[in-house]
Amino acid sequence: MRIKELKILIQEYDRIEELPDLEQKLLEKARTAAENAYAPYSHFNVGAAVLLENGEIVAGNNQENADFTDGLCAERVALFYAHATYPGTAVKAIAITAKNKNGFLEEPAQPCGSCRQVMVETEFRFKKPIRIILDGKNGIQVLNGADSLLPLAFKPVALD
Ligand code: THU
Q1: Per the residue annotation, which of 35, 75, 121, 123 is the catalytic one?
Q2: Is 75 a catalytic residue?
Q3: How far apart are alpha carbons 9 and 105 in whole angstroms?
Q4: pTM of the model
Q5: Of 141, 143, 145, nearest to 14 (Cα)?
Q6: What domains appear along the chain, each with residue ranges and CATH number?
Q7: Ligand 1 test: best mutation among 36, 41, 42, 133, most atoms within 8 Å of CB?
Q8: Whose CA is nearest to atom 14 of ligand 1?
Q9: Contact (Cβ atoms closer than 8 angstroms) between residue 62 and residue 46
Q10: Which among 30, 53, 83, 98 is least buried, having the fewest CB atoms inside 10 angstroms?
């Protein structure tokens, strides 16, 4: 038996102003998107903004449904829209934020497992890591690559 230890590097920023200009802009777009979420059932508004290699920014937010399982998370709305609109264009970064009835979250927003899996697929598709920016009022966390969010992910190579 061997023990394998995985290391995850997280960059932490106290304030949005500490991020590079383009990432500040990306996070602002995510925050605006969160304001426009359709979340009448959970009252949990999530916003995601995707920076593409061609410089375009695409934003998305969660879209809920009275049939709860028919809704979709902000991250996947943004990523799928990005892939549908710019099919050959790699994703450089994604910023994610969320607010509940008390306002934007204190701790960095955490994407769900399905959204993490879609980020892994996107990285595989374009063979490039995505910079992942997780917004929180107490601090912003930045990860370089979805492997940090979903270690031991299911990857397409398993299908070969
Ligand atoms: N939600 C997201 O949009 N992204 C996540 O990563 C986690 C959850 C949404 C789904 C649902 O509309 C609401 O948050 C409560 O789960």
Answers
A1: 75
A2: yes
A3: 22
A4: 0.97
A5: 141
A6: 11-141 (3.40.140.10)
A7: 42
A8: 44
A9: yes
A10: 53
Angle, CA of 111, 159 and 1, to the nearest 5° = 75
What are the pLDDT digits (tens) for 1-42? Answer: 999 999 999 999 999 999 999 999 999 999 999 999 999 999
User: Using a 6 Å CB cutoff, which residues line ligand 1?
Assistant: 39, 42, 44, 46, 62, 64, 71, 73-75, 111-112, 115
One-letter amino acid at 38 equals Y
Beta pairing class for 103-104 and 91-100: antiparallel
Ligand 1 centroid distance, CA of 74 (Å): 7
Of all protein residues, the one whose alpha carbon is nearest to atom 9 of ligand 1 is 73
Q: What is the CA radius of gyration of the chain?
A: 16
Torsion of CA 110, 114, 115, 117, to 10 degrees: 110
Average pLDDT over residues 56-79: 98
